[in-house]
Amino acid sequence: MNGPIVSIARELGFEGNPLLEGLVVSIFIAGAFIGSLSSGSLVDNLGCRRTLQITTIPLILGTLLSAQAHSLDEMLWGRFLVGLGIGVNTVLVPIYISEVSPTRYRGSLGTLCQIGTCLGIIVSLLLGIPSENDPHWWRTMLYIASSPAFLLIFGLQFAVESPRWLCKVGRYNDAKRIIYGLWGESEVEKFLEEIQSVIRNDGSDTESSWLELVEGPHKRVALIGGALFVLQQFAGINGILYFSSLTFHDVGITSGALASLFVGLTNFAGALFALYLMDKQGRKKLLIGSYLGMAASMFLITYSISSPLDEQLSHFLPVLGTLVYIFTFAVGAGPVTGLIIPELSSARTRAKIMGFSFSVHWVCNFLVGLFFLELVDRFGISAVYASFGGVSVLSALFAKYFVVETKGRSLEEIEMNLYPDFPTKGE
Question: Considering the chain, what is the average pLDDT of its residues?
C-alpha cells in the first residue's frame, strides 16, 4: 500500500490526512493480531491444510472489497479482512512446513517462508510502480493481488495434510501413507513409534488450552517465542525498511520504488544464503551471527552520522550499513525466528504457542511503526539506530543462552528432550 496510498487517499476523499492514510496502511495489523490468536483453535480442530483453505477466503474477499472500495469504510474493512487471513497464514505456514518436512531438510524448507515473503515484496513493489503515473492503477493492482489467494485455495486440494495432525486425531493409516510418500518407506515405523510416544505423553485431547501455555516447559517455550519476536521487532527491521528510502535518496536514488527494490533484492539474497546454511550451520549459530551483523551495521551507520566524514563517505556508509543490516537479518533473525518456535513447541501446544508468538509480533510491529518517526524527531536518527544496535547485541546474547539447537533432530526427539515426564492434561 505504500506506493498507491496517495492515489487511494485522493480518490476516496481523505487526501492530506496522515492519520487516515496511516490507518489504511496499518489496520491490517489489527486483523493479523486477531487472526494469529484464533489460528491455534482452528489448526487443532481442522488441521493445517483445511484451515489454510478456509482462511484464504478473507484474503480474497478483502482484496476484492479493497479493489472495489468507493469509501474509506469499505477500504478499511477490506484491509482488515486481508489482515485476518495474513494473521492465520503467518502462523500456519511455518507449522505446516515443519510438520511435513523430512528432518534433514526441515530448516531449508522452512526458509522458503522467508524467500516467498521476499518474492512477494519484490512483485508488490513492481506492481506499484505504475501507480506513480496512473491514479487509478491501485484498483487493478488490488485485483491482481487476489490471484495468489485463488491459486492457493485451488493448489491446496493437491497438498497433503500434516501427518502429525492426522496421528493426533487417530488417522494413523492416512499418516502412514503420507509419510511413505513424503519421506520414504524407511521412515514410516520410526515416525509412528515416536509420534505415539509423544501422544501418550501429551494426552488424547485434540485441542490444547491457552492455560497450558503458563505451565511447565510450555511456559518456557511460549516465553522464548514471544521474546524472540519482541527482540526481532525492536532490533528495528521495520524502522530500517521505513527509513531506507531517505537513506538511498542521499546517494542520488530518488525513486522510492527503486530504493525499495534494492532493499527487496538484498533481502532475497540473504534468504537464499539462509536456505543454504540453515541445515548446515544450524539455527542457533545463524541467529547469533545474524544479530551480531545487524548490530555492527547499526553502529556503522551511527558512526557515519555522528562523526566528521567527507560528504561522499558519509552518504555511502549509511547505504552500506542498511544493506548489510537487511542481508544479515534475512540470513538469521528473519527466517530462524518463525522456524524455531514450532520446532521447540510440543505437538499439543504448537499451534497455540505460534499463535501467541505471532500476536506478540504484530503488537511490536505496530508499536515500532507508530513511534519510530516520533523517536527520530525527539532523539535523532543516530540515537535510534544505536538503540537498534544495542537490542541486536542483547538478542544475540539471548539466542546464545536461551535458544536450543534443533538442527538434525525430529520434532518428536526435540519434544521428548524438552518435555521429559511433564505431567500433561490427560495423564
Answer: 88
